């Protein structure tokens, strides 16, 4: 059992910026850390609770957050003053939120993303290796298998949702020394299969729909993160499954299980394995490995 | 009901947009040129929130199955009814069976067709706007095609009161490409060298063929970044930052600038260096491929003044139409 802790990071002074006349953007740190992300979530949740007139969009992101405002109702400088007061009140350590741990089965080295990977070799740093071989070597793993073990070895927190509807950016819940990091493609691909699972910078993602993309591709999940018709059982309330603050447990599956889940999705009967959890940054920082084990137990 | 005979190049149904869902990655969508959209609605007696048909570079051909009043605004697409030329920026009476035909845009990039009563498609997440990437809103979530049938709502005023309404000639925009587009520098413009920040606001930029509802990719001088050791999580390219939310109108610089428009990606990992102010996004939306764009840096008070000026002007326009 690991005894590693996560030490909260000292954040710089936040930078308050105008996004034109109708957005306020706040950068909490240039570097990704749980401290910066939890602070972004804590502040945006406070903004939501205060129900400030003139806030049109409230959008936490990895180490920053953004608000769209109606300047006919509230002056951007008044928004910034309010945000500064929230910022001094918020403490990440004694803050917690209601979250969900969600099981995301993944068929690694699947035929569909493999075909894409091979089609775009000329846009890649290492045209002679697959994305997984490249990532394994870059992160000091001897083979693809042990790299995948590390990828699924601890859950990933949804630190931002966006790019397109339903795409989660996820940051693995391990101390910094254990985190994986890879570059994005030298030039983005023009095609990525829907439901592809990728990795870029320090973030795993699930592509909701087919489209462009620049992350390294590792596999494909049979489950959906976006259901525009809201026909599947877990999508009654929103066409998007993951929310900022949710936790994703990637699970390695074989082709048979992939096909079974796919059939259930197509029948409209598939229900996600997921559990409600109250997430406590303080407890997580104290003993991340133990905390993750307890989180994952909620799924079994 | 309107039957589409020719859907044009990229025509979609748009209203004032979809808000409140940015945090799940849902862009606002909505009309790219709010002035032309709002005036079109005012001409036919609709509220400004009513859905219109937004046409890009080429108009549609449509047949009406009932008597109604329509208005075409925005880019000049030379509308005709049953072969007879009709004016832009004015309310035009059409009879059941009439064919409205429009051609290619001779100035401007986006035209709007409003019909008395509005295009009556269902609302998805509070808006009728089409967002084609995931296929929601508008007509089946996609661009219009020959054979589509669009339902029309009930007009608010008697049709007889609507016809002959027109926007005063002096309020019709000219879409000249010398007009500057105002921006507020910022977000992560610390990534740019001083020379590149200067160049952004003084040099000529050209609209490339990759300019659509998602973003306007511009061509111009090379952008240089301040050298640094990349922060954890950003990725190694000097243009990479830890992924953040992108404001609508923001200018990202993977290398050459891309200005994000109404169907933009909502976040990502490229440095964003400034934002086009809200009243000037519609100005940019009327630029065609190969047109030039000049950015002018303003501060937030100037931007808010420009916003008020544009709102007052639009109010004057709709008042002038009603009188």
From TrEMBL, chain A:
Gene3D superfamilies: 3.30.1360.40, Cyclophilin-like. Residues 14-233 form the Carboxyltransferase domain. SUPFAM superfamilies: Cyclophilin-like (SSF50891), PH0987 N-terminal domain-like (SSF160467). One of its GO terms (molecular function) is hydrolase activity. The keyword rRNA-binding does not apply. Keywords: ATP-binding, Hydrolase, Nucleotide-binding. InterPro entries: CT_C_D (IPR003833), Cyclophilin-like_dom_sf (IPR029000), PxpB (IPR010016). This is Allophanate hydrolase subunit 1. It comes from Halococcus hamelinensis 100A6.
């Amino acid at each position: 059992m690991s005894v590693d802790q996560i030490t909260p990071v000292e954040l710089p002074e936040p930078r308050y910026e105008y996004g034109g006349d109708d957005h306020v953007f706040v950068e909490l740190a240039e570097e990704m850390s749980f401290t910066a992300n939890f602070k972004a979530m804590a502040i945006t949740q406070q903004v939501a609770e205060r129900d400030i007139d003139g806030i049109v969009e409230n959008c936490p992101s990895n180490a920053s957050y953004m608000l769209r405002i109606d300047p006919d109702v509230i002056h951007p400088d008044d928004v910034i003053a309010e945000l500064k007061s929230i910022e001094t009140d918020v403490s990440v350590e004694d803050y917690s939120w209601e979250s969900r741990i969600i099981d995301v089965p993944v068929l690694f080295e699947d035929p569909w993303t493999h075909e894409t990977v091979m089609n775009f070799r000329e846009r890649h740093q290492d045209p002679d290796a697959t994305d997984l071989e490249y990532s394994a070597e870059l992160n000091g793993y001897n083979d693809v298998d042990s790299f995948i073990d590390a990828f699924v070895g601890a859950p990933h927190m949804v630190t931002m949702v966006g790019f397109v509807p339903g795409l989660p950016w996820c940051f693995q819940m391990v101390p910094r020394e254990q985190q994986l990091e890879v570059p994005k493609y030298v030039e983005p691909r023009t095609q990525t299969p829907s439901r592809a699972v990728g990795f870029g910078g320090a973030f795993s993602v699930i592509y909701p729909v087919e489209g462009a993309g620049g992350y390294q591709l590792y596999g494909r999940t049979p489950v959906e993160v976006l259901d525009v018709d809201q026909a599947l059982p877990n999508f009654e309330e929103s066409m998007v499954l993951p929310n900022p603050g949710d936790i994703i447990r990637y699970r390695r599956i074989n082709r048979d299980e992939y096909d079974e889940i796919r059939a259930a999705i197509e029948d409209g009967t598939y229900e996600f394995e997921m559990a409600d959890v109250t997430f406590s940054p303080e407890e997580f920082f104290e003993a991340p490995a133990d905390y993750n084990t307890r989180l994952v137990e909620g799924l079994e | 009901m309107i039957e589409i005979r020719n859907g044009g190049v990229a025509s979609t149904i748009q209203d004032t947009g979809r808000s409140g869902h940015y945090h799940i990655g849902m862009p606002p969508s909505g009309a790219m040129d709010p002035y032309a959209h709002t005036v079109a609605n005012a001409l036919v007696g609709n509220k400004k929130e009513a859905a219109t048909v937004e046409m890009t570079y080429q108009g549609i051909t449509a047949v009406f199955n009932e008597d109604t009043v329509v208005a075409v605004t925005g880019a000049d697409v030379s509308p005709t009814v049953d072969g007879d030329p009709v004016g832009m920026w004015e309310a035009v009476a059409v009879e059941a069976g009439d064919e409205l035909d429009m051609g290619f845009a001779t100035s401007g990039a986006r035209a709007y067709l409003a019909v008395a009563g509005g295009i009556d498609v269902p609302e998805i997440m509070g808006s009728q706007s089409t967002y084609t990437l995931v296929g929601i809103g508008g007509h089946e979530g996609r661009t219009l095609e020959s054979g589509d049938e669009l339902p029309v709502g009930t007009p608010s005023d008697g049709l007889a009161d609507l016809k002959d309404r027109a926007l005063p000639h002096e309020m019709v925009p000219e879409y000249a490409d010398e007009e500057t587009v105002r921006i507020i520098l910022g977000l992560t413009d610390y990534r740019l060298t001083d020379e590149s920040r200067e160049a952004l606001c003084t040099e000529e930029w050209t609209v490339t063929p990759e300019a659509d509802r998602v973003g306007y990719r511009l061509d111009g001088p090379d952008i240089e970044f301040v050298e640094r050791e990349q922060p954890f999580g950003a990725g190694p390219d000097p243009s990479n930052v830890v992924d953040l939310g992108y404001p609508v109108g923001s200018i990202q610089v993977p290398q050459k600038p891309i200005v994000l428009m109404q169907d933009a990606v909502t976040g990502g990992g490229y440095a964003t260096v400034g934002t086009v102010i809200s009243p000037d996004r519609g100005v940019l939306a009327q630029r065609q491929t190969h047109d030039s764009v000049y950015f002018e840096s303003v501060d937030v008070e100037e931007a808010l003044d420009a916003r008020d000026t544009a709102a007052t002007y639009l109010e004057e326009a709709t008042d002038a139409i009603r009188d």
